[in-house]
Amino acid sequence: MSDVLFIILAALAGLGGGAALAGFFIKNKNAKLEEETKLKVSSMLREAELNAESIKKDRMLEAKEKFLKLKSEFDEETSNKKNIIITNENKVKQLQQQVAKEQEAVKRKEAELDSKKENLNAQLHSVQVKKEELERVTNQRIADLEKVAGLTREEARDQIVTMLTEEAQTKASSQIKDILDEAKLTATKQAKKIVLDTIQRTATEHAVENCVSVFNIESDDIKGKIIGREGRNIRALEAATGVEIVVDDTPEAIIISGFDPVRREIARLSLHRLVQDGRIHPARIEEVVAKTEKNIEEEIVEIGERTCIDLGIHGLHPELIRMVGRMRFRSSYGQNLLQHSREVAKLAATMAAEMGLNAKLAKRAGLLHDIGKVWPEEQELPHAILGMELAKRYKENPEICNAIGAHHDEIEMTSMISPIVQASDAISGSRPGARREIMDSYVKRLKELEELALGFDGVNKCFAMQAGRELRILVDADNVDDQRAGQLSFDISQKIEKEMQYPGQIKVTVIREMRSVSYAR
C-alpha cells in the first residue's frame, strides 16, 4: 500500500519538488528493508545455532549408545574366548596327564616284553640244543637202519611213496565205483519211475500212415467218368493236384498216390465232390480243386487252433498255429507228425510236472519241437535248427527255442526242458509200431553199429540184437579184465552217442566172466 501511495505522490508532485520527495521516500524505504533483513538474518542464525546444538547432542547420544553396545559385545566375546581358552588348557593338561600315564604303561610293557624275550631266547637255545641232539640220534638210527636194510634214505622214501600211491589209487577207484554204482542205481530208479509213470499216463494211437490213399466208389462205372475221354479228366486232376491217380482193376476203389499228404487229401476231397456232383470235366475239376485247396487251408488253421485248445496252449502266433495244423498232413518215418507232436507235448508236460519244472513250457516246446519239418520252403538247415529260428522269429520263450533246437543235439542244451523234450521225442518215436524205416537204411544202421564196436581192441565178436536196441559184445578174456570190460562198454556207448543217429536208446553189453552195462541215451 505504501508503494502504491509513493507512486501516486510522485506522479502528482511533478518533476521538481516531486523528485526530492520521491528520493526521501526511497531512502526511508531502503532503511526499513535493511533493518528487517538484519532482524531476519539474526533470527535465522539463532535458530540455526539452536538446531545445531540439538543435533550435536543427539549425535553424541547415539555415538555414546553405540559405543556402549560395541563395548558390551566385545566384553562378551572376550569372555567367551577366554572361557574357551581355559577349557582347552584344561583339556591339554588332561591329555598330557593321560599321555604320561600311557608312556609309563608302555615302559612297563616294554620291560615285561624284554623279560619274556630273554626267557624265550633261553628256551630257544634249549630247544636248539635238544634238536641238534635229536638230529644226531636220528641220523645215527637212520644210518643203522640203512646198514640193516641195505637201502638209502631216498630209496626207502620212494618205495613208501609208491606203496602209498598204489594203495590210495586202489581205495579211490573202489570208492568211486561204489559211488557211481549207488548214483546209477538211484538215478536209474528215479528215471524209470518218471518215464514209466509218464508212459502209463499218456495214451496214444500207433497207426502207421503210408504214401497212398484209397478213394472208395459205389460202382466201377464212375471210373470211366473220372478217366474221361482219352484220359483228359484224370490228366487234368493230376495236373491240378500234383498226385498220381491210379485207376486199375481194383473193384470199387481208386488209388491216390503221392508223398505229400496235403496234396493227397486235396485230391481225395476233390474226387468226392466231383463224384457227388456228377459233372466231371477239366474246367469243373480246376474249379473244385481250387475250392478244396481253400477249404483245406481253412481246415489246417482249424486243426491247429483245436490242437492248441485241446492241449491248453494259449498265445501261439497265427503262423505257428497254421504250421501245427499242417502237421496233420505230414508223416515222419510213417508216424503222423501232429499225433507225434501231441504225444511229445503230453509226455514232456508229465515229466516236467514230476520233476517240479514248468509243465506249460515243456508242453509248448513238445508241440513245437518238429515245427521245422512243415516249413513250406526248401531250407538247407536241419529241421531242429529251422524250428528254433521260426520260434525265435515269432517271439517264443528262449527255453522253448533251445529245446526245439537241441532235441537232436545240434546245439548245446541250456535249459532243463531241453532234455525232457528230447527224451519225450525218443519215447514217442521208439514205441513199438510207431515208426517204419526203409529196409536198406535199417540194415545199414545195424551194420554200422556192429562195425563201430568191432573197431575197439579186445573185441572178438559183436551182434546187434532186438532191432538195433541192444549191442552184445564178446571180448577176449585174456586181454580184457573186469575193469577194462566196464571201461570198454562205456567207451563204445559214448562213441555211439557221438557218431550215430538212432531212435530211443541202445543197450551196450560187454560179455566176459562178468557183464558191465552202460546205455547210450
Would you summarize the structure shown here?
This protein is an alpha+beta fold and 521 residues long. The chain has 15 helices and nine strands. The chain has helices at residues 2-13, 17-149, 153-201, 221-227, 232-241, 261-277, 282-311, 318-326, 337-354, 359-368, 383-393, 398-406, 417-430, 439-454, 482-499; strands at residues 212-216, 244-246, 253-257, 331-332, 335-336, 459-465, 470-475, 506-511, 515-520.
Would you mind describing this structure in some detail?
- It is an enzyme of class 3 (hydrolase).
- InterPro entries: HD/PDEase_dom (IPR003607), HD_domain (IPR006674), HDIG_dom (IPR006675), KH_dom (IPR004087), KH_dom_type_1 (IPR004088), KH_dom_type_1_sf (IPR036612), Ribonuclease_Y (IPR017705), RNase_Y_N (IPR022711).
- Its EC number is 3.1.-.-.
- The chain is an alpha+beta fold and about 525 residues long.
- Helix content is about 70%, strand content about 10%.
- It contains 15 helices and nine strands.
- The strands form three sheets. A four-stranded mixed beta sheet has the order 6-7-8-9, with helices on one face. Strands 1-3-2 form a three-stranded antiparallel beta sheet, covered by helices on one side. A two-stranded antiparallel sheet has the order 4-5.
- Strand 2 and strand 3 (about 255) form a beta hairpin.
- The radius of gyration is 59 Å and the shape is flat.
What is the averaged pLDDT score?
A: 78
Classify the helix fraction into a percent range: 55-70%
Give the DSSP E fraction (strand runs of 2 or more residues).
Answer: 5-15%
Listing every helix as H and every strand as E from the N terminus to the C terminus, the arrangement reads HHHEHHEEHHHEEHHHHHHEEHEE
Which parts are unreliable, with pLDDT below 50 for 5 consecutive residues or more?
205-209
Q: How many helical stretches?
A: 15
Can you list the strand order of the major beta sheet?
6-7-8-9
Rg, Å, rounded: 59 Å
EC number: 3.1.-.-
Coiled coil: 85-137
InterPro entries: HD/PDEase_dom, HD_domain, HDIG_dom, KH_dom, KH_dom_type_1, KH_dom_type_1_sf, Ribonuclease_Y, RNase_Y_N
Family: Belongs to the RNase Y family.
